[in-house]
Each structure stands twice: as C-alpha cells, then as structure tokens.
Design brief:
heterodimer, A: alpha+beta, Alpha-Beta Plaits, three-stranded antiparallel beta sheet, 7 strands, B: alpha+beta, Cytochrome-c3 Hydrogenase, chain B, about 45% helix
Chain lengths: ~150, ~375
C-alpha cells in the first residue's frame, strides 16, 4: 500500500515531466510581442491625447483628492478663452509613478475620463527622477466642449 | 545581556534563529528556537520586520481610500480583506448593497479562497521536499489570477470592493472563464490527492505531528482551518453570514485529528466546498446595479462598528471607531494569522526541528497579515 502510494505520485510527476506543454510557463521577456492583458489591466496612469494634441483634463483635482498616496499633483493656470472669459486650465499634470499603488481610484474619480490606465508594466529605470512624469504633452489644450 | 549567555546551557539546550530570511517561513518571520538535540523545547516568534502601520495609515485616509491598504495585509485573501473594510463602512452608513454586487462579492471571495489554498498546497509540498505540487498548484492558481486580471484589473491587490458595492461590473468573459476553470479544476483536484493526500511519506510527516487540542485552539483564538482541524466549528460564513452567504448551501469541513494532517484535509475539503458555492452562484448572478448610490464624500456617523469575514486563513475582524468626520478615528484589524501564530509554540514543543517546517506550513501563515 505504502509503495503503491509512492509509485502513484511518481507516475503523475513523470507524466508531467514528459508532457511539459500542459504546464503553463511563460518565457518572459522573450514573449514580449505576444503578451496579452485584460483590457482593465492597471499598468500606469496615462493621459490620452488626440491627433490635435488635445486632452480632456479640466484641472478639477478630483483625482488628486482621490489618490491615497499623494501620487498626483495638478498645477493650474488661468487662460483666456475664445470668448474672452478667464478659465482654469492645467499647466502640469505631475504623476509620481514611484508612489503609485495602482489602486485605480483616480480613474474612477475622474468626471471627464481624462486619464486611464495603460498596459505598460515595465517601470524600472536607473534614475528615480525618471519616475516623476508630466502627463500632459507640451502645448496641449483641452478638447472643446469638456467642462 | 542575552549575547553573553553561553551557546549551550548546562542541560544541553541551545538556541538557533530560523528566519527572518528563510524559505519556509514564507516571509520575514524570525523564530527563536530553543533545541535540545533535535527536540524543540521552545519557539519564540519575533515580529516587526514588515510592520507598515496600516492601521495608523488608515486613520489618515478617507473612507474610500483606506480600503486598498488592506490588500497588502493578507495578500492572498486581498478580496476578502477589502470586502471586510467595505462592509464596515456600509454598516456605518446603513447602506444596503445591490443583490448583484453581493453575488459577485461571494464569487470573488470563493475564487480568492481557492487561489490561496492552491498556493498553500503547492508551498506545503515544497516545504516538505516535493517540487511537483508547487508547479501544479500554481498552474491552477494562474487561471484564477487571469480571471481577476480581466475583471478587477490586477492579479493580487485587486481593490475591487468599494463602499456600496463594486468598482466595476464583471467582465463579459467572466462567467465563461469561471466555468472553464471549474471544469479544469474538477480534473485537477484528484491529482492533488494522488500526489500528497495518500502519499506515505507525507502521511508519516504530518500525522500525529503538531497536536493542537481543541481547548488550546479556543484559548489562543485560532480560527479558520487551524481551529477546524481541531474540531472547532468557527466558520463566519455559517455562524454570522454576510453578503448573502445564508443563501448558498455548503458544509463546514471539520476534522478531529488535531494534527497537521487534519488541517491539510480541512483545506482540501474547503476547496471542494468553494467549488460547490461557485457552481451554485455562477448561473444565478442577478441583473441590476453593481453599486449602490453613495455621496462623493462619505461620513460615517459617530459610533463603533465591527464586521468580520472568513478569509482563507480564518476570521478577519475590522473594528472601526468613527467621530463623524470623513476619516476613521481608529481602525483595528483582528487578523487570523496573528492568533494562529500564537499557537505555534504549543504545537511545536516536543516535536523534532524538521517537523517545525510541516507545522508552519499547515498553519498557512502570511507574515504581512501578522505584522500589518
């Protein structure tokens, strides 16, 4: 009985030894091209810009308030719009990747869908300064109609 | 000074340090083990290597923000930890969550429990010197983590529960993928038994080892599979049902052997029960909202609130004191790992040093849960 239990276990081990394709292993980083993620996968916060270099961020700081780690800092400026009225706009959307825990609370808090999570997960850099990012591109503007 | 003590006492006792960097402690746990020859005379756990003051940090966060921190306590039961915190806020706000959110929470909890037990099973085999279980356990866990990644956005620290329900609705592929997983796992669970349960070496190393009497289990406040392996019924899902557990049929697995083997069998049977619960729920997810309507800034009325859930390791309690502001005044977590670790000395005394690894493995400790 005792020997039988050992042989039975060894048989299973031997089965997987000879059928190694049934065990899931990924040959990372060689499979970078074929890596797939779920669409909700949380890599890092990005601010999508359209082809006119326009984003959807109004600078309302809802994400800054929602962030539990102080990862986001929004610097605003006053801009004169086409109608001659003064309007608040973002100067810099600073994102400290090094402090981010990818909890998704900022994305949920954003009323205008200006930020989203990208699938980029390889964050390692040689200099910590590179982890502080400005998400709005230079000379970018807010999309018309987003209030 | 302790350092000036002789290495070996007159009676032949000597002390060795196991950890904080030891593969079988599964984290930074430091055990000061007093031995006489190979026999354990005393085990003294030293904690604090991974203390992050999560309770204090919670006091500085708002009621929406503190939940994500608890994913970092018992990271293998991240969903249940989040659920306990969301529940305590809901209790304070007297908020009823939609039926759809309840069912999805139950499904996610049971999937988390399965994933946690699969990792435990693999690590147990590895601790006792068998490497195949590790690969097989991780193979099945990977499928569950893929389901989490698709629906929650993360594989381990999900942060899927928010006060009032869930952050997102389930992904359209969720039901199909869970069904595929259940079908695969039905074929794989017998392999678990073939490899370890009936194995003579495994039985010799676990049967009669690490005895924890029911009286001791009660007095140390052990919960989860550790207490159930000593014949104590303590499943929060049965005794104090939450989020709809009263509507599903399942058994509370119990063994009376009080040894490592009993705790092992309890966990294997728990996996079968989790599969049963998922099978009952997966075709009956109610339609409707996944989140109740809440205010932007949550303010829990002044008072004290306590909720508890059954994590993969036992009972997690969240005690909240509110002063009526938007931050918790005090948060206290009653974590299962801390109480279960308290029983380690009683279980290990008189056993051999090699058995300590088996005892630790069946306690299923997660060190960040003990230290917080």
């Amino acid at each position: 009985m005792a020997i039988k239990s050992l042989v039975s276990g060894m048989r299973l081990t031997g089965y997987y030894f000879t059928h190694h394709k049934e065990i899931l292993t990924q040959e990372y980083p060689d499979n970078r091209e074929t890596l797939t993620f779920g669409e909700r996968f949380r890599g890092e916060v990005v601010m999508p810009h359209d082809e006119n270099n326009e984003h959807r961020c109004t600078g309302c700081t809802a994400c800054e308030i929602a962030c539990p780690n102080g990862t986001i800092k929004i610097l605003t400026k006053m801009e004169v719009g086409e109608d001659g009225k003064k309007k608040k706009a973002i100067e810099k959307f600073v994102y400290h990747l090094g402090m981010c825990t990818f909890c998704n609370l900022c994305i949920v808090a954003c009323p205008t869908d200006a930020i989203k999570m990208s699938h980029d997960f390889e964050h390692s850099v040689f200099d910590r300064k590179q982890l502080t990012k400005v998400l709005n591109k230079p000379d970018s503007k807010i999309v018309k109609g987003v209030e | 000074m302790e350092l000036e003590q002789p290495a070996i006492s007159d009676t032949g006792d000597f002390t060795i340090n196991m950890g904080p960097q030891h593969p079988s402690t599964h984290g930074v746990l430091h055990l000061k083990v007093t031995l006489n020859g190979e026999t354990i005379k005393n085990v003294e756990p030293h904690l604090g290597y991974i203390h992050r003051s999560i309770e204090k940090m919670s006091e500085a966060s708002t009621y929406r923000n503190f939940i994500y921190l608890t994913s970092r306590m018992d990271y293998l039961s991240a969903h249940m930890n989040n659920q306990a915190c969301a529940m305590v806020v809901e209790k304070g706000l007297q908020l009823e969550i939609p039926p759809r959110a309840k069912v999805i929470r139950m499904l996610m909890s049971e999937l988390t429990r399965l994933a946690s037990h699969q990792l435990w099973w693999g690590a147990l085999g590895l601790d006792l010197g068998a490497i195949t279980p590790y690969f097989l356990g991780f193979r099945d866990r990977e499928e569950i983590l893929d389901i989490f990644e698709e629906t929650c956005g993360a594989r381990l620290t999900m942060n899927y529960n928010v006060p009032g329900g869930l952050m997102y609705d389930i992904h359209p592929n969720f039901v199909g993928k869970v069904k595929t997983f259940l079908k695969n796992f039905e074929d794989h669970l017998p392999e678990y038994k073939q490899l370890l349960t009936g194995n003579i070496i495994f039985e010799e190393r676990t049967k009669g080892v690490g005895i924890l009497t029911p009286e001791d289990a009660l007095s140390f406040g052990c919960t989860g599979a550790v207490a159930r392996g000593s014949g104590i019924s303590c499943d929060v899902r049965k005794w104090n049902p939450y989020d709809g557990y009263e509507t599903v049929q399942f058994e509370e697995p119990m063994e009376t052997g009080c040894d490592c083997y009993s705790r092992y069998v309890v966990r294997i049977r728990e996996m079968e029960e989790s599969v049963k619960i998922i099978e009952q729920l997966i075709d009956n997810i109610p339609e409707g909202e996944f989140q109740a309507k809440t205010k932007v800034v949550l303010k829990v009325p002044k008072g004290e609130y306590y909720t508890r859930v059954e994590t993969a390791r036992g009972e997690l309690g969240v005690y909240l004191v509110s002063d009526g502001s938007s931050n918790p005044y005090r948060i206290k977590y009653r974590s299962p790992g801390f109480s279960n670790l308290a029983a380690l000395n009683t279980m290990a005394k008189g056993n051999k040093i090699g058995d300590l690894v088996a005892i630790m493995a069946t306690l299923d400790l997660v060190i960040p849960d003990i230290d917080r």
